[in-house]
């Protein structure tokens, strides 16, 4: 059986990567989502084991000590996020490809580990102003968390050139179409 490949979507918070990754998962075959571990609080509508594995900081640290992660990061102050080795192995050995929604540093680390078997896609918002509007309209973050995410966005956008592909998410329908085209081409 052909082993699956890895497709990593990354972007500043609010750029739309979760929306685009969900669309790809709903409309394309043979790709599965790499469910990450996180210590952040569950948002309304999120499901443990589907959106994330929600862990306590102690549970997360135990997994670090047991060397269970391909990569992990302290993404925003006090919050850990990480990709489990077992998650990637399970999906690829089934013959499926893995799609990730992870931060910029994590994405570039995965690329370094998997090379040509991995495609990195940076989702670019049309502007920082639009990014802010999208984050406010998503209505998931407190004032303090919103600021953390916007502060980090500028630094993340400087890393865009290190990705294989930069995808503009302006008109949503166009970006969804482009997302599926990029993935289909890579998996050919
Ligand atoms: N390095 C790394 N980053 C992750 C992982 N899972 C999620 N992230 C990133 O952590 C950041 C925060 O994610 P989240 O709290 O869901 O907020 P959102 O990006 O605003 O929807 C985003 O950039 C995610 O892509 C992971 O396993 N590893
Ligand atoms: N092209 C777009 N135009 C307008 N709103 C969008 C677009 N893409 C995503 N959104 C909205 O912006 C918000 C942030 O998108 P989300 O996918 O959660 O971003 P991320 O996962 O990158 O943080 C959501 O409310 C989403 O519905």
TrEMBL record:
Guanylate kinase-like domain span: 4-184
Give EC number(s), comma-separated.
2.7.4.8
Say where the protein is mainly found.
Answer: cytoplasm
Q: Which residues bind ATP?
A: 11-18
| InterPro entries linked | GK/Ca_channel_bsu (IPR008145), Guanylate_kin-like_dom (IPR008144), Guanylate_kinase (IPR017665), Guanylate_kinase_CS (IPR020590), P-loop_NTPase (IPR027417)
Q: Name one Pfam family in it.
A: Guanylate_kin
In terms of PROSITE patterns, this protein maps to: GUANYLATE_KINASE_1 (PS00856), GUANYLATE_KINASE_2 (PS50052)
Catalytic activity, as annotated: GMP + ATP = GDP + ADP
Localization recorded for this chain is:
Cytoplasm
Record family assignment:
Belongs to the guanylate kinase family.
- General function of this protein: Essential for recycling GMP and indirectly, cGMP.
Q: What is this protein called?
A: Guanylate kinase
Source organism: Algoriella xinjiangensis
| Gene (UniProt) | gmk
């Amino acid at each position: 059986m052909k082993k699956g490949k890895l497709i990593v979507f990354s972007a500043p918070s609010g750029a739309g990567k979760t929306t685009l990754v969900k669309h790809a998962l709903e409309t394309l075959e043979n790709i599965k989502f790499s469910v990450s571990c996180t210590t952040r609080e569950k948002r309304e509508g999120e499901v443990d084991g589907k959106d994330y594995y929600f862990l306590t900081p102690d549970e997360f640290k135990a997994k670090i000590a047991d060397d269970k992660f391909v990569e992990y990061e302290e993404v925003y102050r006090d919050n850990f996020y990480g990709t489990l080795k077992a998650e990637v192995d399970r999906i690829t050995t089934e013959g499926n490809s893995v799609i990730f929604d992870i931060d910029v540093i994590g994405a570039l680390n995965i690329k370094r580990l998997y090379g040509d078997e991995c495609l990195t896609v940076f989702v670019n918002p049309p502007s920082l102003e639009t990014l802010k509007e999208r984050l406010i309209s998503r209505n998931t973050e407190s004032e303090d968390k919103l600021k953390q995410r916007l502060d980090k966005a500028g630094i993340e956008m400087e890393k865009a050139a290190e990705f294989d592909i930069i995808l503009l998410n302006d008109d949503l329908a166009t970006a969804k179409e482009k997302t599926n085209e990029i993935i289909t081409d890579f998996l050919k």
